[in-house]
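Backbone geometry tokens:
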Amino acid sequence: MPHGRGAKMVWSPLRKLVSRFPERNILLVLSLVVGICCGLSAVGLKLAIGGLHHLFSGITAGGGWLRYLVIALPGVGMLLSLLIVRYVIKDDIGHGVTKVLVAVSKNDSRIKKHNMWSSLVTSALTIGLGGSVGAEAPIVYTGAAFGSNLARYMGLSYRNMTVLLGCGAAGAVAGIFNAPLAGVLFTLEILLFNISMSSILPLLVSTVSATVVSYLCLGQATQFTCNLAPFAMRNIPFYLILGVFCGLCSLYFMRMTLFLEDVLGRLKNPWIKWAVCSVLLGGMVFLLPPLYGEGYSSLAPLLNGEEAGLRLIGFFALVLLLKVFSMTFTNAGGGVGGTFGPTLFVGAIAGYLMASVINLIVPGNVPVANFVLVGMAGLMAGVMQAPMTAIFLIAEISGGYQLFLPLIITAGISYGVMRIFEKYSIYTKRIAQTGQLLTHDSDQAVLTLLKTADLVETDFTPIRIDATLGELVEAVAGSDRNIFPVLDGKKRFQGYITLSDIRRDMFRTDLYEKNHVFNYMLSAPDYVYPDDGMDAVMQKFERTGAWNLPVVTAERTYLGFVSKSRIFNAYRTELRNVSQE
């Protein structure tokens, strides 16, 4: 995006042009622009990762000591990303999907400008050099940043800025996977709340345009080429078992990830943490090559139905258990990447292991490739708690629409098993622990559309703390409100007075010079700050039992009052607007 004086020259005329048209129409045009940007970004990220991987794979395949470079390469990628993040970006850009959720929940859907490129560069270096993470979360963060910043530059409302942010995330998923429908479902299930039906159209425009760009640049081949067997009803019990297994694997994946993050978080020195993680990750990828990079290339034999013996089953069971370690080491050591790709990878391994074990025990083969794909959906449904996204994503990226019934069965069972143990997904767990998650509750979803700063009432007559009763009575005579904020000489809020507090004395002229404001002043039960989320504001009202609360800055400078009645009226209006769209 342009900066400084150049930005004003570019965006001012565009804003004037946009203001002549309804925002709803402008939103459709901008969703197309965002979709194209997301498609190009996804293509660029794929090519960068593929190019780096091809370059260094060729070097390490040279034989001799060169093959040991694979131990050092992931650490080099992590170091480069760490240096860029610390000295160029100077911001935390990890856990991209979670960051988008936080932006929607408490940051007015605003994402910093650098996120339109920073996640792309650092994740390309991390993954291209062997970091064991996925490219999906960084591209989602990038797409959401495109939507957020474009909406802000064009002066869109918070509601439409949030929708355009969702368009960016949806377009990113569609562009990286060539899966437009999965992109829409990803945004609806994981990122946004109960948006109106009219908001789905911009999401569709964004995902389709991103997919078309990806098709034009990279072709129409599916992400995973496989040999699928026709669905057989006799295999339904095995898909049920796979669903339970995927649910348990999802629980392990999520809890082990959070545990390892907590353990590694105790290392405060980033360079020591990088060294420890680099050594551990390098040893793991050397001993278990499928852990190198995204690992998708290792799935090709499995998707083509390769049979397994006990030794191979043991090998892939170890890969399944250790993938979460390699992923967490990569992110903790300074690399940039997400859990989306590792989730699909572990799901594929889980499906392969289940099919292989069944084929060893039960006469009559179950189709290994089918179980590999369905396992992907199972893990995704459990870890991300997004069964619909899982079902349609795997169908789209594999061309395996004939697997709909197994996908639904396994994803549904895995999701149900995971919900028994975990209420939140891997993306929302940390946010929920801090009480900041607002986007997945129906009532609070509408509250996120309300901004505290927009509901502040300022038509109260302030009075000095040292004013006399006579001066207070004059202020009452000139005011239509029955609350009077009390301020000191620096406009800082000290308390308040209500009309009922002075009713008995306000007609006693003999007290006008004797009594002062501080004789009647009451302390506020709590304070509201302009950047408070509406959920936090409502909790303060609930806790104090107050009907009005003062709004102040961090230095307690008085700004106004916010009332329950105004919040309720705004809530009803917003709910009606959402319902009518």
